Amino acid sequence: MSGEIQKFRGRLVERQREARRLDMLIKGSVLALRNELDPFRASEDLNGEMIAELALQLGDLEIQLKSVLAEVAALRRALE
Q1: In sequence order, which residues have a C-beta less than 8 Å from that of residue 51 and are 6 or more positions away?
Q2: 20-52 pLDDT, tens digit each
Q3: How much is the pTM?
Q4: Is CB count within 10 Å lower at the N or C end of the chain?
Q5: From the centroid of its chain, how far is CA 21?
Q6: Structural domain tally of the chain?
């Protein structure tokens, strides 16, 4: 096995771990948003700043995850 293939496989494992980490963070952000967006809470009791911050965080995590998943796909193609 060439050193290049080993390098690609190692990188693939790293990026797959990163994708799992980001996925867990996204799920946590979704849960936090759901908690803040309690439909039974009065409108004046909503924490708009927190909701906006969580939404931005979720969007950033999604962008990161899509980037990592694209890297994973490229590495898989390179290893075929």
Answers
A1: 33, 36, 37
A2: 999 999 999 999 999 999 999 999 999 999 999
A3: 0.88
A4: C
A5: 7
A6: 1
